[in-house]
Amino acid sequence: MKAVVIGPGRIGCGFAGQLLRESGWEVSFLGREPVVRRLQRMGRYVVRLVEGITSDDIVVAGISAVCLANSRAAVAEIAAADLVVTAVGATNLLAVAPVIAAGLARRRKATNVIAFENLARAGPHLKEQVTGHLPAGCDIEQHGFSGAVVSRAVSHRLCPLNETEPLVFVGDRPSTFAVDGGALRGTIPDVAGLQAVDDYEAEVCRKLYSYSAGHAACAYLGYLKGYHFVHTAVRDPEIRAIVREAMVEGQRGLAARYGPARAGTEADLDAVMERFANAGLADPIVRVGRDPRRKLSADDRLVGAARLATECGTTPARLALAMAAAMVFCDPADPACAAMHRELQEDGVAGVLRSVCGLSSDEGLGRLVADELRSLVGGWTEGNLMLSLEQRQWSWAGPAPVSAAPVSAAPVSAAAT
After folding, report:
1. Which CATH number applies to 201-414?
2. Where in 102-247 does DSSP place strands (E)?
3. For the chain, domain boundaries
4. Residue 113 pLDDT greater than 50, yes or no
5. CB 343 within 8 A of CB 296
6. Confidence band for 163, pLDDT divided at 50, 70 and 90
7. CATH for the 2-198 domain, from 3.40.50.720, 2.40.37.10, 3.40.720.10, 2.40.30.10
8. ω before 135 within 30° of 0 (cis)?
9. Of all residues in the chain, what percent carry a pLDDT higher than 70?
10. What percent of the chain shows pLDDT beyond 90?
């Protein structure tokens, strides 16, 4: 059985590729240089599973790789595949849809396509995009499309300077993933860790509104206090308490919507917190906080969890604080940060809450976020660090916010109008 993995990155190699090879699949990666060239030259890579100071290296050997720029070869790989996996990032699915369509158009047998993307409707979204590129007469319905809810966090891809050494992907130990069993065609693919579920939406929301919400909250609050890694941020007692309370808010909403069994227990939240504290991952806050605009969208991890909590009568105060922190998060290397900060300057908080989060700043959750943001921005200046999230104490009483500040005082005041 042959599988094609589009995207030889952290999840493509560090999770999907490892499990596929472990299950006996022939695996071919499609991607861009120079990663593909390295995989072609070595024919193997390493997955390093870490837990604190201990680690296990798994050699993933017997693989092949093709550059997406070589469209003829890439299409031929997909046409020969019994399973197609994408792990390119949600924003890049549009770019790979044409090559998937071209490959599927050459197949006579059904193929399952699984999108290992952190996106609620990854399978249906990719199916829509692929359909738009299929030639007339091709039946998209013969192929299965599902997303995948991935349990593992893969924080790094290490490229040894010695080019005779393989790439190394660093992640934690969980190795299961859920797929929408009803959306797949034919026999469920035999892959280690695959769990075919009936209520895929519930699985997506459980991860998104619990683990992902807590992960993002830890990163954005850690940024305010000057931490560089998730594991150091979550060891701050104040951040740890707030992040756990935010996850409890989301868990209450999950319990009301999907039932207590789906929402999990307090012990489950404790286990997630311990995963955040895994120093072996050395997970950078800038990686976890990347693209805050997408992570603040109406159905994503923070806003979606807060809205679900509100529906069951819980006031999502901690999730609102995390959302406000996301709005002031500033990574100079992230274009999405700069774009959102421009929107804040031009449209004010009320405008961003409406356009990005789908919220009104005059009531409910939107008002909570606007109030938290006003409190944060009141003491924020370039280079200033928060000493206490609860008391809003800053490291020094600096001058008025400079032009480089992500949010000026004016847009915040506009939120109250």
Report:
1. 1.10.1040.10
2. 112-115, 144-150, 154-158, 168-171, 177-180, 194-197
3. 2-198, 201-414
4. yes
5. no
6. confident
7. 3.40.50.720
8. no
9. 95
10. 84
